[in-house]
Design a protein that fits this description.
Blueprint: E1 8-12, H1 16-26, E2 32-36, H2 42-48, E3 53-57, H3 69-80, E4 86-91, H4 95-103, E5 108-112, H5 116-134, E6 139-141, E7 146-148, H6 152-164, E8 171-174, H7 181-190, E9 199-203, H8 209-217, E10 218-219, E11 231-232, H9 234-237, E12 242-246, H10 253-265, E13 267-268, E14 277-278, E15 282-287, H11 291-296, H12 302-308, E16 311-314, H13 324-339, E17 346-347, H14 349-357, H15 363-377, E18 382-383, H16 391-395, H17 405-409, H18 413-427, H19 432-439, H20 443-452
Parallel strand pairs: 1-2, 1-3, 3-4, 4-5, 8-15, 8-16, 9-12, 12-15, 17-18
Antiparallel strand pairs: 6-7, 10-11, 13-14
Helix pairs in contact: 13-15, 18-19, 19-20
Keywords: ATP-binding, DNA-binding, Nucleotide-binding, Phosphoprotein, Transcription, Transcription regulation
Organism: Pontibacter fetidus
GO molecular function: ATP binding; sequence-specific DNA binding
């Protein structure tokens, strides 16, 4: 498979200095780096040899000279090989053309002058995506986001993303912690017509009532004691693009009212100002809270729900995704083996069975952390069951690692979550950082749950 050190990369650019700089940068990162100065030789070169990734300049001093030579050569490459992975190299002034290229089949683009770390991250993501594709893994791949899975549950989500992304519909994403709500939000943005505009993410549950307005709507100099200068809010920063409000189910009634007013009027008024500012955003929201149950108890405004969920997506928990657990475990193992300069390990059948039996309260995020720990601590080149340890394994036997868990224990999901958190904190002797990592939560999210469940 073409990951990292095994990758073969072709660089096509008519500037000798660029070819030299990229070859020096990549020569220790991949198996082979080939260069070509004349794009007219590109098709004959591809007929003779196969490359995992092609880095292609967007502008050449050629007879075409139209400013979008990269798009021309991209189409030529994809006509010859529809599965080719092409990353375009562009000047800042051609970013709009580069964004168009994503819709025409490019994997991603980088802007000159590039940052080496960002270029290498983009290249390695492309190589992993290529490897996953060869392995028959079903994915959504955009400029920054890969959603991986073969299960029927995730296939349905991928299909809905493709259908919803090109629209202007506001989207509400529901799902447990760690199921990938922000990944889905980013995929919706990156596959939309707003892809070249900002994607602004806000964890609204982390904002106090006093910070909510200043963070989201902005403020003018002198609006309050620490307002030393004008500052744009997140709504204005996302203008023309997508605003992602995470953990929206946790905001107070006062915040809900202010948010509803902004969404109805399509304008914000910064603190300290009387002048409203029009906004043009696509709103994507997410929560792991039972938002309709909250609405029935008058703890969440029904009129706000109608505003934020033109379309609704419910992400499946990892325990409901069957063989995706093995697929994701192997995917993360390849990533963290490369990151830690180790050979990619195999995973023993008994280990796969253990992973499938775990209830995964932290979902994909928890699996990712578990694999990373196993890669670091494992002795051999095969991950064994003992390389993975979970407190939740003691809590949830095999029959509980399925969606029917709540019904089988006659416990509501809130009680299951409360008991899981209590036991993990007890296991880690009160260390919140360790408990949060084991649960696949941030410290902030865990503190919110401690307060919610009065633990």
């Amino acid at each position: 498979m073409a990951t990292g050190k095994n990758g073969r990369v072709l660089i096509v650019d008519d500037e000798t200095d660029v070819l030299f700089a990229l070859k020096m940068l990549l020569k220790t990162e991949v198996k082979e780096v080939a260069t070509e100065k004349n794009p007219d030789n590109l098709l004959s070169l591809l007929a003779r040899d196969k490359f995992d990734v092609i880095l292609l300049d967007m502008n050449f001093k050629s007879a075409l000279n139209t400013g979008n030579e990269g798009l021309f050569w991209l189409r030529q490459i994809l006509e010859k090989d529809k599965d080719a992975t092409v990353i375009l190299i562009t000047a800042y002034g051609d970013v709009e053309l580069a964004v168009r290229s994503l819709k025409q089949g490019a994997y991603d683009f980088i802007v000159k002058p590039w940052h080496n770390d960002k270029l290498l991250e983009t290249l390695h993501n492309a190589l992993h995506a290529k490897s996953d594709k060869k392995a028959g893994k079903q994915t959504i791949v955009t400029s920054q986001t890969t959603i991986l899975g073969q299960s029927e549950a995730i296939h349905d989500i991928l299909y809905k993303i493709e259908k919803i992304a090109p629209t202007e519909a506001n989207v509400l994403i529901l799902g447990e912690n760690g199921t990938g709500k922000e990944l889905v939000a980013r995929a919706l943005h990156e596959k939309s017509f707003r892809a070249g505009k900002p994607f602004v993410s806000v964890d609204v549950a982390a904002l106090t009532d006093t910070l909510f307005e200043s963070e989201l709507f902005g403020f003018k100099k002198g609006a309050f004691t620490d307002a030393k200068e004008d500052r744009k809010g997140r709504f204005e920063a996302a203008n023309g693009g997508t605003l992602f409000l995470d953990e929206i189910g946790n905001i107070s009634p006062g915040m809900q009212a202010k948010l509803l007013t902004v969404l109805q009027n399509r304008q914000v008024t910064p603190l300290g100002s009387n002048t409203p500012i029009p906004i043009d955003i696509r709103l994507i929201s997410a929560t792991n809270e039972p938002i309709y149950e909250l609405a029935s108890k008058n703890q969440f405004r029904k009129d706000l729900i109608y505003r934020i969920n033109t379309v609704e997506l419910t992400l499946p928990p990892l325990r409901a995704r069957g063989n995706d657990i093995e697929l994701l475990a192997r995917h993360f193992a390849a990533i963290y083996a490369e990151k830690n300069h180790k050979p990619v390990p195999d995973i023993a059948p008994a280990t796969i069975e253990k992973l499938k039996q775990h209830s995964w309260p932290g979902n994909v995020r928890e699996l990712q952390h578990a694999v990373e720990r196993a890669i670091i601590l494992a002795e051999g080149n095969v991950l064994q069951p003992q390389d993975f340890s979970f407190s939740a394994m003691e809590l949830a036997p095999a029959t509980q690692a399925v969606p029917a868990f709540a019904a089988e224990t006659n416990m509501p999901l809130s009680e299951i979550e409360r008991e899981t958190i209590r036991r993990v904190i007890e296991k880690n002797k009160g260390n919140i950082s360790k408990a949060a990592k084991e649960l696949g939560l941030t410290r902030t999210a865990l503190y919110r749950r401690l307060n919610k469940y009065d633990i």
